[in-house]
Design a protein that fits this description.
8 helices; binds adenosine-5'-triphosphate; binds zinc ion
């Protein structure tokens, strides 16, 4: 094994795979991928991409056998608690929170069961893939319970008579609903994160990482931002600029044949933009264009 090549672990096939791979590619890494391979070489940098089950990623980083991993915080924290219990190394360095893989670990109970706060499940059996996160939460809240460990199809456990309720990952909530359950309490919120082993990297690898991290920042920033162009009345300019956060220095241009208005170009956070749309119109803005931004370096 070459120690000079940086090793980055991502999920082989699952919900994080495509986003992880696309992120690395958008940072300029040319991944030479053959589907069945565990290791994919990067053609233009001394980097190897390890494609493994997501559950293995935190351990590989904590054992220091790979340099970088991209994994969900849920799996990361569950593995940390699990390893802590048996005395395995648990240290890692958090490099970056990603803008994908968002989900929550939530308690869900059968539709027909009434919910009166956490007390409702006191003494019950809880089916979950995340016994350590579930235990930590319920113990902190002084709830008595038993966990039933299931690594898949957790949502069918109550109907199958294996447990009274579940603690499972939810994003839209559709799976839970389709199985006659209702989400009642969030236990842990998660996103994908990029982590690094705690032992320092060889200088050559650190150099590559220093080059890649600003690109990742740029990608994450670009995802949430839009390039906005609009026509604004000159007499309301200050107020208009105030409502669009993140546009400290808009470009202002004269409009031919329209002395009372100017064109305003700026980068703004998309979420805030929509919230402020009506206000902008009320202030006399028109011809509003919102364009996607592919990459951004500040
Ligand atoms: P593997 O074969 O790699 O073990 P898996 O079945 O454990 O795959 P996936 O279902 O692909 O894992 O989920 C991977 C991660 O994606 C989860 O651990 C979580 O961080 C994130 N995720 C985002 N949304 C959801 C969701 N609705 N349900 C489950 N996981 C989600
Ligand atoms: Zn998994």
């Amino acid at each position: 094994m070459s120690s000079k090549r940086m090793r980055i672990a991502i999920q082989k096939s699952g919900r994080l795979s495509q986003d992880s791979e696309e992120l690395l590619q958008s940072c300029g890494l040319k991944i030479n991928k053959r589907e069945a391979r565990l290791i994919a070489h990067v053609d233009n940098y001394p980097i190897d991409i390890l494609r493994v089950r997501d559950d293995d990623i935190p351990g590989l980083v904590m054992d220091g056998v790979i340099d970088i991993g991209i994994v969900g915080e849920n799996v990361l924290e569950e593995t940390r608690l699990q390893r802590e219990k048996v005395g395995l190394p648990t240290e890692y360095k958090l490099l970056k929170k990603m803008d994908f893989g968002g989900c929550r670990l939530s308690l869900a109970i059968p539709d027909e069961m009434e919910w009166h706060g956490l007390e409702t499940i006191n003494g019950m059996k809880v089916a979950t893939t995340y016994p350590f996160l579930t235990r930590r939460y319920l113990e902190e809240n002084h709830i008595q319970f038993k966990t039933v460990l299931l690594t898949g199809s957790v949502e069918i456990a109550p109907r199958a008579g294996l447990a009274d309720c579940i603690c499972d990952l939810v994003s839209s909530g559709a799976t839970i609903e389709a199985n006659g359950l209702k989400e009642v309490q969030v236990v842990f919120r998660s996103k994908a994160v990029m982590i690094q082993r705690i032992k320092e990297l060889y200088p050559e690898k650190q150099e590559i990482l220093d080059k890649i991290m600003p690109r990742i920042d740029g990608m994450i920033q670009a995802h949430g931002s839009k390039y906005i162009m609009l026509h604004a009345p000159k007499n309301n300019l200050d107020e208009i600029i105030k409502i669009l956060p993140g546009c400290e220095n808009p470009t202002i241009m004269e409009l031919a044949g329209n002395p009372d208005h100017v064109a305003l170009h700026m980068v703004s956070q998309e979420a805030h933009f929509w919230e402020n749309m009506e206000k902008l119109k009320a202030l006399g803005c028109s011809s509003i264009l919102v364009l996607p931004i592919e990459k951004m370096l500040k």
